[in-house]
User: Fold this.
Amino acid sequence: MRKGKSAIGPRSLTLFPWLVLAVSLAFTATATLVVSNSIERHEQRRFENDVDRASQAIENRVKSYSALLQGAKGMFTQNNEPKRADFQNYVNGLRLGSNFPGMAGIGYVANLTDIDQATLQQRLDRDNITGFKPWPSSQSVPFDVLYLEEEGSENKHAQGFNMASDPQRLVAMNEAVRLRKTLLVGPVKLTEEPRHEHEDGLLILVPVFFGAEPEDGEDASTRIIGFVYSPIFPEAMFSQLAPNEETVKVYLGKPSKDTLLYDSGSSMILPHPDKSTFTKTVNGSDEVGLTLEFRSTPSFDARSERALIPFTAMAGVLFSGLLFFFTFLESIARKKAQQEAFDRQFAQRELGMSERRLRNLIEQAPVSIQVVSPDGHCIEVNGGFEKLWQASLKNFKDVNLLEHPYMKECGLLPYVLRALSGKPTTFPATEVDIARLAGEGRTRWIMGSAYPLKDQQGRVREVVVMHQDLTDAKKAEEEIVEMNAYLEQRVEERTEELRRAVDEMEAFSYSVAHDLRAPLRAMGSFARILMEDHSEGLDEEAQGFLNRIGENSVRMGELIDGLLDLARISRATLDIDEVDLSKVVEELWRNMEKRYPAPLPTIRIQPALRADADIRLIRAALQNLLDNAWKFSRRESQPVIHFGAENRGGETVYFIRDNGAGFDPSYINKLFRPFERLHTGTEYPGTGIGLATVRRIIERHGGKVWAEGELDKGATFYFTLPSTKTVNVMDEHTFYLSEGVIPKSRRLLG
Assistant:
């Protein structure tokens, strides 16, 4: 049953689940975005809090270090030249190593410009400074380190170092004097300490003036007596202040490679530079500040709540998928129920239409159709039935086909019973007299089929029987039988006539062979006797006549032999077997060596050419073709005869080719006719029977023969033999017979 289309299309039935999926995925995307933004804001606040704490700590440390130096400067303000012992007590009381990481010490750089050696020595002796020696030697203004406390071997090494010898320090000292403020200098090489001579460090310079603080830079430059300074190691100063989950870079001034003081580990930067990088400036001195650059590390991100983002997305997608799945199942179930209801309605309509179409088909079908109920009554027939039997449905009103004796008598009952059992069946040609069933109608030869029609439970509701009228075919069959009998009689009569004709031909052949040969032999013998015994009494003309009589009697005998051979070939029984044609040609050529004068033409024989043929007849055909080739090529300077085969359209074609006189192609239709000659007998003697014999032999084998050639360019004679075995293509194994001699080094393929 063909299913109909529901009024509710598949797009409308499945649209709702997809709409639900789209809304839920949109909600998931929105929730994921909200969570992501919230987490990023939280991370940003956490990162900024860490930066603020670290920045404040670094700023406090720088300020505290500056305050220490300001305290030391106060000693010089109160007393222009404090004793070193008082300075040492101040520094030692600070415990720089434990309380102020990275601070190498606090020292004093004296301006020795206007101090003579004696005054300097008195000062050194007063402060118990021994072994003082300015270094390095320089033409610059002497600003030498008198001492760097706490005293130790490393700080001792700084004693006498001329700070002005370093251009960078000299510029910084001038700037500090001009500004009259504390100044940070760096990064600089801490050359005064051997342990750190290759380490970049930081200097804090505090200018010390004579008397009260100068009012301007010019006054300051004339009253500068020295600097309180401290060398700082950034690694020790800043390392403990950097956050655990961020890296920090410390620059003196604007960030650049040349101003970098400290880097806690820039190789551990996360791929979030826009979210996890923070720059802050800390004023650690009166003028020049420190720039701090913070970046997050993997440990910072490890504590992040970013894992909630994919979790939220995955949970949303999973929920959306489940919601879509259940909605889709519900939609399919609803669609299936609607489709089933529609299909039932459609099936009922289709069933009614199908029944009407079946009735119309049965009624209008050109064949005879009869519908039989399960109880054996005829319930419907079509117009073809009434036309065939000349009877109508009313004639079968009281007829039960299962009980009527004629159904069994005519042999149709078993086929009807088989169809009523539910199995389709056909019945053979049967002669039925419908009048014996219906009381009216005519006799017809029929064959047909019976098909059961079943309900949904598989029960047979009715059987449709179709009849095919064979009456005309039966009449035609009887006529054919009568015609065959007549034809067989005619064949026997013609066969008898042919047998008598063959007997007459045999008698004629016998007469030609015996009755005509005797006069020919007599004429030839008497002509020879006259020439031998009485030639002296005959003039030349008479002798010529006698010679012509003898030659023509011989030629007449050859013609008779040719005609007899042609007749025998026409009626000979074929004995077909596989023949090695190459070997046959070889044997025939050996015999020709004995019959014809040397030298013979060169012959080329393609080996292993086989065919199904009668050995006697095919030898005769090949002999005639070889004789023909020899006769027309023997006058050439280098005559060559070639026997071979080639494939044309899947068929093996044999040929014998020569390079002799050839023939005019316009006369090719005369080549194979008896007694037809294209050359005069004086040029090329012969009977004109040879090629006709070849044609008769090949045609008796069911093959074809034809020729191709041109005058003075040789000729090729082709022939085919049906059922020919596949032959080898000519190759290097082809051998030659030159001048009638077969080279012993060549092997014949038999």
